[in-house]
Structures are given as structure tokens and as C-alpha cells.
Amino acid sequence: MTKALIIGGGIAGAVTAMALRKAGIDAEIFEAYPTGADDVGAFLVLFANGLEALRVIDAHGPVAAHSFPAQRVEFLDGSGERLGERPIAGAAQGTDLGPRTLRRATLYQVLHAEAARRQIAVRHGKRLVGAETVRTADGTRVIASFADGSRAEGDLLIGADGLHSVTRTLIDPAAPRPRYTGQNTVCGYVRETEVPLPPDTYTMIRGKRAFFGCTRAPDGAVWWFANIPGTELDRTGPPDTAPGAWRERVAELFADDDTPAAALVRASGDRLIASSAYDLATIPTWHTDTMVVLGDAAHAAAPNAAQGASMAIEDGIVLARCLRDRPDPHSAFAAYEELRRERVEKVVAASAGMAKLTATGATQGPVPRYGAPRDGAARDRAAADDWLTGYRIEW
User: Fold this and answer.
1) Are 61 and 112 in contact (CB under 8 A)?
2) Is the whole-model pTM more than 0.70?
3) CA 201 to CA 74: how far, in whole Å?
4) Is residue 288 within 8 Å of residue 180, measured between CB atoms?
């Protein structure tokens, strides 16, 4: 049986391993960190395309059970004026299809529980430092080397090792680096608040100095995020800003707005997490004869489109299908790239456009209004949602 070495034990790695198992390919996951479930305070949204991709490998049920839905999004400007609302793509199809909101750590834990149930091995503390392709009498093999001195051998190596991928640089040492977008994303939670928020809704606020979004969970807590201008954070060391300082900094950015954002931020506890926003629009080389990248290792979108996890899930399942159907890894990798490159680069560009729209200073221009699809612009938005969240994988 063909054996794949998957580098990276996050969302992309777990999904790819399960998809490969469905395709009849053995897979082993190698994770750099001693434990998983990083970013315990951050949350994300899976839209219909991500949930439908998980359905292909029968992993959508546990994810739906550990998340909650939203049916619509409403828009406010910094003065508190309501600009309109519209249904979220996929919501009308049923609450098990998306969009679903959950903590990133929860998604990690659910997917890894599914992988463990399917007896997929995960090796922790395995930081990739090198890989070489060797020719043997039995064919081509790839040997991965790890920082602890150990090695692993397989028929192919899949880099699901994220934004700062080692696999990407092994495939192409001149590959572009991720671009810092000039924004930090801060996530927080409010256990109790009297701020009125509509049910089953994401409220999006385009403030004068930053962008804010929030939704109410079934237990009454408010989950919020803010995209704020700032310098790139140090990702190699411990956080250099305490939760209380982040809380005050974010609240101050919304203090001059006539919206609930500042009050919600100030009512938050210390469970705040901040991260830098990056994107990676394109890389020239996705694969060699034995190695390939997927998810954030191959392409990364700014968080504005909320499609990072869904794109990684789609990647893993399409790659597994190509490996099942093609005679060798090289031709499978080429088919996978052909199927995925245009779509993911379009998502990266779309998310970058959203980031510009909501960036500081954008409010100096005309503020768009959102409503039911009655005019051409609204129909265009509905069509855009369809290409993005209406995507389905034929297994």
C-alpha cells in the first residue's frame, strides 16, 4: 500500500489523512509541537463548502455537533446606522451545512478524534528539517528528517505545515514568503451583556478606525473579533501584550463610534487572543515528484473571507482523490494543482479586496449598502457567494 508522510497535524493534516484513508492510501501525521490545539481562544467559521467537503469523508457530523449556526449577516457603519442585511450563503440549505461557528481548538480536537477513531497515527514533537528523494530497486521513496534526529520513509510527502511551511521551502528555496497585511486580528468573548443583538446573526461593524464582528452563541455568550491596524507580532516567543492591554487597545479604537463594539470589548474577560494577519497570493511551484504542499503552505488568504479552514479541507480531499485516480504521485500532484490553483488564488484575491474595504481610511469613501438581492450589485454578490460557498467535490 502507498504510504504518505503528512507534515503538520493541524486541520489540513487531519483531513488529508482521513481522505487518504478513504482513497486506500496509508498516512502518518508528523506534528512539530508536543501537543496540539493551539490558539485556544480563536474561533472560525466553516461555510457550506467546508462542511460539504467534510461530508465526503463522513466527518461533518461531529463538527456540526460542536458548533452553532448563523443564518444572516447585518451591517452597521461607525455611526450605528444599519446598512442592511442579507442571508449567509448556505444557511438556507439547513443548519447542518453551514455556516457553523466554533473555536479553532474545538475543530482541531474533533478532527483528531475522528482520525484516531480511524487508527491514523500522529507523531508529536517531529519538526521537519529536511527531505530527500531516493531511487531504489522498488521505486522512488522520500525520506523525511526531523529536528530530534529521527527519520521517516514513505512514497510521498505532503506539506500541511501551515503559513510558515518548511515543506514549501524544501520544494522551492526561492518560494515567496507570506506577506503581513498590516492588520492584527483579536478574538474575545463576553459571558454576560445587556447589549441587544439579533439571534442567528453576525453583526458586522465598519468602524471609523477598525472593523468589528460578533455573534451570540446558544449559551448567550457573545463571540467577537476585531481586525485592527498594527505591527507584526512576534510569533516565536510568548505574547508581549497582556489580555488587559489588548482589551483597552481594541476598545479605544471603537470608542468614538456609536456602536456596541467598545462596550462588548470592555465587557470581555481575559480570554483574548491576538494574531497577525498574512496572505500568500501565489507560489510558482506546488510540488516535486514526491513532495507537495496544501492549505496555508500553498496559499493563504487574509482572514476577512473566513475561508482558510474550508480551503485547506477542500485541498486535502481533492489531493486524495487525485492520488487515488492517477498512476503515480507526480501526475496526481499535477492534476491536484490544476484543479485547485485558480480557485484558491481567486479566494486569496477576494479576501485581500475585503481587507482593503474594511481597512482604516476606507470609510472616507462611499459606504456600500447591503440588502436583499434586488439590484444588479446584490445579484453579483449572490453570484460571488455561489462560486465561493457553492463549490462541491465529486468524490
Assistant:
1) no
2) yes
3) 7
4) no
Radius of gyration of the chain (CA): 21
Q: What is the pLDDT at residue 343?
A: 97
DSSP assigned state of 92: G
State the pLDDT at residue 151. Answer: 98
- The count of other CB atoms within 10 Å of the CB of residue 331 is 14
Q: Which residues of the chain have pLDDT under 50?
A: 93-95, 361-380
C-alpha cell at 6: 503528512
What contacts 86, CB < 8 A, 6 or more positions away? 72, 73, 370, 371, 372, 373, 378, 381
**Number of helical H runs and strand E runs in the chain:** 10, 18
Identify the pLDDT of residue 354: 85
Task: Tell me the H-state helices in the chain.
Answer: 11-22, 48-56, 60-65, 104-117, 166-171, 243-253, 261-266, 308-325, 329-358, 376-389
- According to DSSP, the residues that pair with 228 across neighbouring strands are 184
Cβ partners under 8 Å of residue 241, min gap 6? 249, 274
What pLDDT is recorded for position 369? 38
The three cell numbers locating residue 256? 468614538
The H or E element that residue 131 is part of is strand 128-136
Q: What pairs with residue 102 in β-bridges?
A: 44
**3-state SS assignment for residue 20:** helix
pLDDT on residue 93: 47
Place of cell 500532484: 333
SS3 assignment, position 82: strand
Query: Hey, which residues does 140 pair with through a beta bridge?
Result: 135
- Single-letter residue type at 344: V
DSSP state of 210: -
Closest by CA position to 304, among listed 343, 347, 344:
347
- Alpha-carbon distance of 70 to 95, in angstroms, equals 8
> Is-contact 323 2, C-beta < 8 A?
yes
